[in-house]
Amino acid sequence: MTEPTLRRFPAPWTVVERESSFQIEDATGFVLAYVLFGEDPQRPNGTNRITKDEARRIAVNMAAVPELRGALRD
Fold first, then answer.
1. Are 31 and 24 in contact (CB under 8 A)?
2. Given this model, what pLDDT does residue 67 score?
3. What is the pLDDT of residues 9-54, one digit of tens each?
4. Longest CA pairwise span in the chain (Å)
5. CA–CA distance, 4 with 23 (Å, rounded to integer)
6. What is the CA angle 6-7-9, rounded to 5?
7. Considering only CA atoms, which of 58, 38, 35, 40 is closest in space to residue 48?
8. Residues forming a β-bridge with 21
9. Coil, strand or helix: which one is 49?
10. Do residues 38 and 54 touch, judged by C-beta distance below 8 A?
11. Angstrom distance (rounded) from CA 52 to CA 72
């Protein structure tokens, strides 16, 4: 029997909402990625940021990458 491979970024990955971004964290709380959004109605979107809904969808999909889907089900 072989030893299980240790994951460098252990599952589950979670999405945490911040003021102008969503961040994806591994099980230890290490931040893997940020997905920035911008929805300030007082300021034109000169930064070309995506909407909050788009950012949330991207972050959730990143947190459930195919290699981890099996581990999340177990």
1. yes
2. 65
3. 888 899 999 999 999 999 999 999 999 998 766 665 556 779 999 9
4. 61
5. 28
6. 145
7. 38
8. 36
9. coil
10. no
11. 25
Q: How far apart (Å, rounded) are the C-alpha atoms in residues 36 and 51?
A: 9
Q: Provide the residue type at 28 as one letter.
A: T
For tokens 């177990």, what's the residue?
74
Q: Which two tokens stand for residue 32?
A: 């893997």
Supply 6's token pair: 């240790």
- Amino acid identity of residue 34, one-letter, is Y
Task: Say yes or no to pLDDT of 1 above 80.
Answer: no
Tokens 């889907």 appear where? Answer: 69
What type of residue sits at position 16? V
Q: Which residue in this structure is represented by tokens 């029997």?
A: 1
Contact 27, 11 (CB under 8 A): yes
Closest CA to 37 of 24, 26, 53, 14: 53
